[in-house]
From TrEMBL, chain A:
Transmembrane regions listed in the UniProt entry: 50-79, 91-113, 119-138, 212-233
Superkingdom of source: Bacteria
Name the UniProt record assigns to this protein: ABC transporter permease
Family: Belongs to the binding-protein-dependent transport system permease family.
SUPFAM superfamilies, sorted: MetI-like (SSF161098)
Gene from which this protein is expressed: tauC
Location of the ABC transmembrane type-1 domain: 49-233
Subcellular localization(s) per the UniProt record: Cell membrane
Keywords: Cell membrane, Membrane, Transmembrane, Transmembrane helix, Transport
Membrane topology recorded in Swiss-Prot or TrEMBL: Multi-pass membrane protein
TrEMBL record, chain B:
Entry-linked InterPro entries: AAA+_ATPase (IPR003593), ABC_transporter-like_ATP-bd (IPR003439), ABC_transporter-like_CS (IPR017871), ABC_transporter_ATP-bind (IPR050166), P-loop_NTPase (IPR027417)
Coiled-coil boundaries: none
Biological classification of the source: Bacteria, Pseudomonadati, Pseudomonadota, Gammaproteobacteria, Oceanospirillales
The name this protein goes by in its record: ABC transporter ATP-binding protein
All residue ranges annotated as the ABC transporter domain in the record: 3-229
Family recorded in the similarity comment: Belongs to the ABC transporter superfamily.
Species annotation: Marinobacterium zhoushanense
Amino acid sequence: MAAIARPLCIALGLTLLWQCIVWVTGAPKFILPGPGLVIDALLDQLPLLLRHAGVTLAEILLGLTFGVILGLFSALSLITWGGLRRWLMPVLVISQAIPVFALAPVLMLWLGYGMASKIAMATLIIYFPVTAACFDGLRRTPTNYLKLARTLGASWQAQLIQIRLPAALPAFGSGLRVAASVAPIGAVVGEWVGSSTGLGYLMLNANARMQVDLMFAALLVLALIAVSLYFLIDWLARLLVPWQSDTLNTPLSGSGRNR
Amino acid sequence: MDIRLENASLHWQQHCVFSGLNLELPAGQWTSILGQSGVGKSSLLQLLCGIADDADVSGTILCSDGRPLSGRVAWMAQDDLLLPWLSVLDNVLLCARLSRDRVSTEQREYGHYLLAQVGLGAKADVLPKQLSGGQRQRAALARTLFQDRPLVCMDEPFSALDAINRLRLQDLAAQLLADRSVLMITHDPLEALRLSDRVLVLQGSPARLSRPILPLGATPRSVRDGPLLQQQGELLALLAGEVA
């Protein structure tokens, strides 16, 4: 019950706050439309919004898939070939130091205005967090697990697949969560720089035509996608590590009060 | 198979912890090494297991059958080292799971049999986090037995347990490891005297091994055994004498 009531309460509270700001400041509707207007626009333009949302969602999901696969692969290569680490690590850090926003026009030039450049943006923005998280997880295997595996006569591959990889799953889960929360940024920035479909395009277009209510409706849909994606990934990441128990809900004080 | 470790030395930050150390492990006997922390007991044990990579330790290992010792030692640490993502049974079968071949039905049955032997027959399919500390160490003992190696090296295996659980596990280990060569490292003189055929003390700077103490009677010895308690007192005094 609380699982449904709480998000509903938060949504209602935020909407109320939004409406209050509109009332208090008396902002005209082309600056800040009230929630009612935005909901109207959302329902009016639902087919249009859904069409663009579908494109953006596909970009996010494909970017997420490629980024995670690429990151996982890089982390495995880094752990497998020690020499590679010295060469690849600086490249990785540089790739992260250049803002993806600055790369967007170049990607547009190379990959065109279609979905490919947006997928590349999303992939690029999550590549580093996933690689770093996986690599950290893989190299922080408790040494005694590895020693035990050695006394058991395990080959190097067996140690990697049966000891290092499972031990790295919690770290991989954290990488996935970060990836899920930043992948939408990559896709939308890509759409801003140049595109003819997607929620980012719709927002820019609506803004230029002073359809601020439509812009907010698109923003709402985007937020909904990002939040659902995060919770979905969070749920999947928990499924990956059934042996780990959360300590978040344990009482902080000694009295052990149950909530 | 008798095992002999010759001329072992350990250095820690340019400081010699021990050198020229010789250790005999007669076949089928339970040898214990007592000593304080930092005297190099664990490094000595890990040298025999072939896993002493964080210490500057060396020595020559000779087996009476002339073959190398590597791959013929089972290691049991203070921490049970059960992998949290595998069920208790799969942890026991870890040796077979890590090899190239698939786990056979006979191995599975043997795993179940060993779990029943250590009193965990009903816990085969649960995750290690659902076991108590004593049960976890029992599972680790079953994993060690499954390996079926000629030499078993135990590094303070029962030190994390409460007194009652420790006594029970000592009895169980003595019964199940009866005819194997065992090397056990421990802080606890009573534990060493209850279980061992030979007790050695490693102490001094640089550290040296004492002459073996040979407790009498069949293991596991009772904690009410008079001569045993007498020896425990003497050993404690010997160990504590260093500090004073």
